């Protein structure tokens, strides 16, 4: 079976990118909740086809929820969910990722100013 969605472990680069992204949004107002959805289809270089959908909702104070889903031409569905929350009082970012195999990883870091 072809694994379409690969979820690499969180590494140094991911942490740095997450920190930069969070710093860019530190001033964001929690009242500005957004919802975005995107879906479509794909064809791989080996001729395999399928569909995908991505959705993002929430805000950084209450939590941003991301859901990514891929369904292959054989009917297999792979889903990855991520929740990221920023606590302005403690300058802490909490993140939880559930991969397609059901494993959940959690982590947090503090932004020092």
Structure overview:
The protein has 113 residues and is mostly beta strands. The chain has one domain. The chain is 12% helix and 50% strand. A 6-stranded antiparallel β-sheet has the order 1-2-3-4-5-6, with no helix packed on it. Strand 1 and strand 2 form a beta hairpin. It is elongated. The N terminus is likely disordered.
What structural class is derived from the secondary structure elements?
A: mainly beta
Query: How many individual helices?
Result: 1
Largest sheet: 6 strands, antiparallel
Distance between the termini: 47 Å
- What is the topology, as strand order, of the major beta sheet? 1-2-3-4-5-6
Strand runs, count: 6
N to C succession of SSEs: HEEEEEE
**Overall form:** elongated
Whole-number mean pLDDT: 79
Instruction: Tally the structural domains.
Output: 1
Radius of gyration over all CA atoms, rounded: 16 Å
Q: Could you estimate the helical fraction of the residues in percent?
A: 10-25%
Give the low-pLDDT segments. Answer: 1-10, 26-31
In what range is the share of β-strand residues? Answer: over 45%
Question: What are the defining features of this structure?
Answer:
113 residues, mainly beta, six-stranded antiparallel beta sheet, 6 strands, 12% helix, disordered N terminus
Sequence-ordered SSE layout with sheet pairings:
Layout: H1 12-25, E1 34-43, E2 49-59, E3 63-72, E4 77-87, E5 92-98, E6 104-110
Antiparallel strand pairs: 1-2, 2-3, 3-4, 4-5, 5-6
Summarize the structure.
With 113 residues, this protein is mainly beta. It is 12% helix and 50% strand. It has one domain.
